[in-house]
# Entry
Amino acid sequence: MTTVVDEHLALVRDVAPQTPQGCRECLLAGTPWVHLRLCLTCGHVGCCDSSPMRHARRHAFNDGHPIVRSLEPGENWRWCYAHQAFV
# Structure
């Protein structure tokens, strides 16, 4: 796994998941998800790119919060949507 130095790391905060039970938008719409991603700027929980709705990606670009981490048990990686790279 390659990591990069990323200027977006300045946006990372100590956040708690806003909806720890699942993807916020999927919960509202009743749609399924595959894996969850936590926005490290605001705590938004969105579904991954393998999910039908890809809410984490949409949030990253719409809200300008590009760095997420996996919210899956046992996973501890971060991803920058803007650079398409692990950080």
